Amino acid sequence: MPLTSADFAAIRLTLELATVTTLILLVIGTPIAWWLSRTQSWFKGPVGAIVALPLVLPPTVIGFYLLVAMGPNGFVGQFTESLGLGRLPFSFAGLVVGSVIYSLPFVVQPLQNAFDAIGPRPLEAAATLRASPLDCFFTVVLPLAKPGFITASILGFAHTVGEFGVVLMIGGNIPEKTRVVSVQIFDHVEAMEYAQAHWLAGGMVVFSFVVLLALYASRRRTTWS
Amino acid sequence: MIKKALGFTFALAALPFMANADDIQVAVASNFTAPVQALAPGFEKATGHTLVASFGATGQFYAQIKNGAPFQVFLAADDSTPAKLESEGEIAPGSRFTYAIGKLALWSPKDDYVDEKGDVLKQNTFAHLSIANPKTAPYGLAATQTLEKLGLTEMLKGKIVEGTNITQAFQFVSSGNAELGFVALSQIFKDGQVTEGAAWMVPEDMYDPIRQDAVILKGAANDAAAKAFVDYLKTPEAAKIIESFGYTLE
Questions:
Q1: CB contact under 8 A, A190 and B127
Q2: Looking at residues B4-10, what average pLDDT do you find?
Q3: According to DSSP H, which parts of B19-124 are helical?
Q4: A206 reaches B (C-beta below 8 A)
Q5: How close does chain A come to B183, measured CA to CA in Å?
Q6: Is the CB of residue A153 less than 8 Å from the CB of residue A26?
Q7: What DSSP state is assigned to residue A138?
Q8: B6 pLDDT band (50/70/90 cuts)?
Q9: Distance (Å, whole) CA B74 – CA B61
Q10: Which residue of B lies nearest to A173 if distances are taken between CA atoms?
Q11: What is the ipTM of this complex?
């Protein structure tokens, strides 16, 4: 196998990025999805649309705005600098921020669907048994929405692994910090190193297929039960 | 409704055949973006052909050309990629020539940030130094050769950020995300002076010459418009424009 240590570093970095991004997305995506599922507010439409924006926007748009916003003249850049965190472009933290935005709908939407499917009845029943709202959420909603969480995690993880345009625009291609697999493949192709490109690209195809297979398998199981 | 949709599909399908026969598709290395835009009006006026330029990294164009990209002329950022295409029989025989010799500059949009000797590199007070990918972009390779000559490779290793091509390397600097970077002189130079900020013209003995070669691709060997464009590049009028961006000629 012609893969080099740089290729393996890229694979490791990609898995790290996808893991961190998915965990963060589950934490911030759950309340957003819950709110979207329960609210009668006029804001539901606009917020839902904003969450879905990364589905339709070209990654170049997200990358461009992030680069400008996180730069020294952008409001995010000035904010992170005032906190003493420095600036986000060309850093792993910057990629995490970009990936969270980029993969947001892939986590929020399955969760929202799962919450919608539960409906108000189980919660009302739990409330009559004097369960507090928080108690309800952890003992009733979370177990019932488990398939939604599995789908959201798999999609969020896989979509982050497949991220390219945003990383390319804000990453700066730094080994072990921002050079992920998709960028490494792009580099190999540009440098005419087709053998290495084939190994990595083929690996991505196999990985993506297995992920989707796992997703469909988990869905079938939940429908049967 | 269906009829309308079908009509639209046919209109789309017909598009390629409606294109003007005298359109010429040129693949242009990113560093030559501004010069080509300045050359296009003169060429179009002199010949009546229309220039359609695509900008990108030389290695990327190589991969696209090998896989049947519909370019007629390729203006590369180096001489080795066109030579490789020549040895692989992908170009019109005898069409390869050097259209410009590129120059490397260390640049920052901030006035006085970069001194005239490039000592700012040794002072090492910046967070990020932007270069083009040295594996694929000739200006990126020239940048790493310069750092090597200065003996700064090890010291600056953790500060280097790479753009996929020289345009992105430039953009990292112009957006302020990197304080300074190695760019093509043509990106910051017009009519004999640096257009914005401050720059160090890297002495030419610090990196291998960036000879930029042009070729007519195999499929366009008998294409009049392609030949007209290459001929135009060799005119004194074109030479004047190319030199005004800081390139030298053979």
A1: no
A2: 46
A3: 33-47, 58-66, 80-87, 120-123
A4: no
A5: 15
A6: yes
A7: I
A8: very low
A9: 8
A10: B162
A11: 0.78
Sheet of B129-132, strand order: B160-163, B129-132, B180-184, B104-108, B198-201
Is the pLDDT reported for residue A225 higher than 60?
Answer: no
Q: Are B105 and B201 in contact (CB under 8 A)?
A: yes
Q: B93 and B133: one domain?
A: no
Phi and psi at B27, nearest 5°, equal -90, 120
Would the CA dihedral through B131, B134, B140, B142 be positive or negative?
Answer: positive
Q: Which residues in A lie closer than 8 A to residue B160 (C-beta atoms)?
A: 174
| Average pLDDT over every residue of B17-32 | 76
What is the C-alpha separation between A219 and A143, in angstroms, rounded?
15
**Cα three-residue angle A141-A147-A149, rounded to 5 degrees:** 70
Please check the confidence at residue B1 and state whether its pLDDT lies above 50.
Answer: no
- Is residue B97 helix, strand or coil? strand
Domain extent, residue B231, equals 2-101+211-244
Architecture of the domain spanning A5-224: Orthogonal Bundle (1.10)
b/e map of A149-185 (b: 16 or more CB within 10 Å)?
bbbbbbbbbbbbbbbbbbbbbbbbbbeebbbbbbbbb
Q: Which residues of B touch A86 (CB under 8 A)?
A: 127
Which chain A residues have a beta carbon less than 8 Å from that of B60?
189-190
Q: How many domains does chain B have?
A: 2
- B250 in a domain, yes or no? no
Which of B66, B80, B129, B162 is most worth mutating to test chain A (most A CB atoms within 10 A of its CB)? B162
pLDDT at B17: 42
